[in-house]
Amino acid sequence: MTENQGAPATVGVVGAGVMGVGVAQNLAQTGHRVLLLDVGDDVLARARAEIEKGLRFHGMFSRQKGGPPAAEVLARISFTTSYDGFAEADFVIENVTEKWEIKSPIYPVLDEVCPPHACFAANTSAYSITRIGSLTRRPDRVLGMHFMNPVPLKPTVEVIRAFHTSQQTVDTAQALLRAMGKEGIVVNDMPGFVSNRVLMLTINEAVWLVQDQVAAAEDVDRIFKTCFGHKMGPLETADLIGLDTILYSVEVLYESYNDSKYRPCPLLKKMVDAGLHGRKNGRGFYDYTVAGAA
What we know:
By secondary structure, the chain is an alpha/beta fold. The protein is built from twelve helices and eight strands.
């Protein structure tokens, strides 16, 4: 255990995409031993480069000056394609793509290799945590931890208590978040929870506005920033999260509630089909390949 009472010392992070990289960096910066797992060495090499870049960025802009050297932080992370080391994990945070056929096979494996005391957190924006817990023999030790991007700079995490989640598991998750310098806000389990039931509807409706030619993307975002004081407009936020992730999340909400208010906008589908995924690949509602672009 760390000096933070009750906080797990060794944390497995499954998935080395944008969110997994941010979670791994934040954990290592706050003194945790991290096992960062993904399917290929090329993915892990990119993850390591992103963490190095993130540490430089954090040093430039973080208010927490004087943190540990980058080499020390990186030394705390084991990059791996194997679950073998997870036998030593006290806690696991899963961050893979929001597709059930990708997420669901992971939990029985974790259940098999991790020690009995280990808790599992799904970093999902939409899936039912109760459904995820049913994939294991320890549903009382499964909960949701919905981190925001960029993880190291966001102070708050949405913590989701599922039907079987025990208070001890919630307390352990809260201790881990405190050790990471964050506050957890506990909510109950329903697909989309609090944040994404509102945010995904807002973004999807903003895309409908562009499709219906009510306003250009820039003007939709400008209205939210200048009229409501938001730091980012909904379409800028969509680009930051990734349009593919937005589409998957809206589809999960649509399937979960069978409610037409969650039907994905055709323009969103078209953009994802065209490979316009936002900042992660350079173009979404805005073009990030142009110097000085939004």
